[in-house]
Every structure is written in C-alpha cells, then in structure tokens.
Amino acid sequence: MNQSHKMATAEPELSQSPSKNSEEISEETSLEVVNPEGYIKHPLQNKWSLWFFKNDKSKTWQANLRLISKFDTVEDFWALYNHIQLSSNLMSGCDYSLFKDGIEPMWEDARNKKGGRWLLTLNKQHRRVELDRFWLETLLCLIGEAFDDYSDEVCGAVVNIRTKGDKIAVWTTDFENRDAITHIGRVYKERLGLPQKMTIGFQSHTDTATKSGSTTKNKYVV
Ligand code: MGP
Q1: 220 CB under 6 A from ligand 1?
Q2: How crowded is residue 47: how many other Cβ atoms within 10 Å of its Cβ?
Q3: What PANTHER family does the record tag this protein with (predicted)?
Q4: I need a labelling partner for 76 at 20 to 30 A (CA). Which of 101, 119, 139, 164 fits?
C-alpha cells in the first residue's frame, strides 16, 4: 500500500493509531461536520401557491386562472419572486394571487365562502411609486405569518392590475371574526406604512359578489 492511498482512508488510520489522544481525534472528526446553514433551506410555516389571472374575455373567469408555482421555503419564495414580472409591468386586467396551499383564490372555495378582504384601492400615481412595494410587503406579511395569533385566519392575497385603479387585498376566512379581522387590518396598515388618517375597509365576499353599484359596503374600517 503506498503512502498516498493510506492517507486517503481515515477509518483505518484512526484505529491503527492508539497513541493519538482524544483531542486529536475529535479535531479530526469535527472537520466532517458541515454547517447545516449552508445547505438546508429555511422552511416557511405554510406552503403557498402563486396564481396568475389573465383576462381573456372568450373564457370564463375561472378558466383564466392559472397556478404558477408552489413553495414552502424562504429561498424558493425569492427564486420565484425574482423570476416573475413585477405587478407594475403586467397588462391591465391581470392579477397575481398568493394563497395557502389547498385554498383556491376564489370566493367559491370553502375557506373563502364566509370570508372577506381588507381592500387597498390605489390610484394611477400609486402604480409607479407604491404598487410593487405594497405588493411585496403584502407577500412578506403572508409568508412571514405577520398577524400573530390570527395568521391562521388569512387565506391569501390578490393584486388586481386595472386601468381604473389597481387593488391589493388580503383575504381572510370568516367575516364574523371581528377581533381577528381588526387585528389583521391594523397590523397590515402599519406594515404598509399607511398614514393614520388613510383608512382601509373590509368587505365580505358575499357583498362583493352581489353588489349592484361600483362600491361594496365596509363591514370594518381601520
Ligand atoms: P375583479 O377581477 O375582482 O375586479 O372582479 P374588477 O375587474 O376590478 O371588477 P369590479 O367588478 O370589482 O369593478 C371582476 C369580475 O370577475 C367579477 O364581477 C366576477 O364576475 C369575476 N370574479 C372575480 N372574483 C374574485 C371571482 C371569484 O372569486 N369567483 C368567480 N366566480 N368570479 C369572480
């Protein structure tokens, strides 16, 4: 056996050297422990699905909705976010929706049926200045479970790109859960950095789906 081969086999080397003290051995073995920070992705509390909606008037609303991808780690979130267009670059009539895995981004889903949304309505100036920042902050609130004990109430969030004014909304599961909804609304407003005097309203999906005019009445306001 030549010398170079012998050096490559750590096991026999250890057992054949009874003279080595324990410090030397532990130094040798500790070299083999790799820091897990280097290769384990950071898990999120929930798995999330990102959906895209493109307005094709020849199809039904539901048929225009497409699942882009799912992720459940911080790293996979950023990989996806950095890969897709910013909301401000989308064509009018398009939406992004981020929902917990297993909840479809529509009123009809069992977890949305009795729910509603905190709605942020933006004007044309906002698109250039604030839209992308607000949407990213919304995504981070969701995946980071920012609403304390009430994060379980959150189903997802939607950004609508519209000529008449873009919209961003956080959808929650039950419009009767006043404590949860008001807490979520307050935290959300603070995270977006909205001024105190600017209010946002929460509307139930039932009211939104059956509205007759252009506005839906607010169930809560913060
Ligand atoms: P929208 O895309 O949420 O808002 O709803 P938009 O385009 O700004 O229109 P506005 O009415 O709010 O001014 C547009 C239309 O899409 C609705 O009127 C429904 O016909 C359809 N739609 C929207 N959502 C969120 C749903 C849904 O969850 N389920 C079904 N079936 N249709 C929906």
Answers
A1: no
A2: 14
A3: EUKARYOTIC TRANSLATION INITIATION FACTOR 4E RELATED, EUKARYOTIC TRANSLATION INITIATION FACTOR 4E-RELATED
A4: 119
* Residue 53 Cα: closest atom of ligand 1: 2
Asked if residue 126 lies in contact with residue 81, where contact means CB atoms within 8 angstroms, the answer is no
Residue range 75-85, pLDDT digits in tens: 999 999 999 99
DSSP string across 30-89: HTTPPPGGGT---EEEEEEEEEEE---TTS-TGGGEEEEEEEEEHHHHHHHHHHSPPGGG
CB 48 within 8 Å of CB 67: no
Q: Is 103 helix (H, G, I), strand (E, B) or coil?
A: coil
> Which atom of ligand 1 sits closest to the CA of residue 214?
13
Q: Is the CB of 107 under 6 A from ligand 1?
A: yes
Which of 61, 64, 170 has most ligand 1 atoms within 8 Å of CB, for mutation? 61
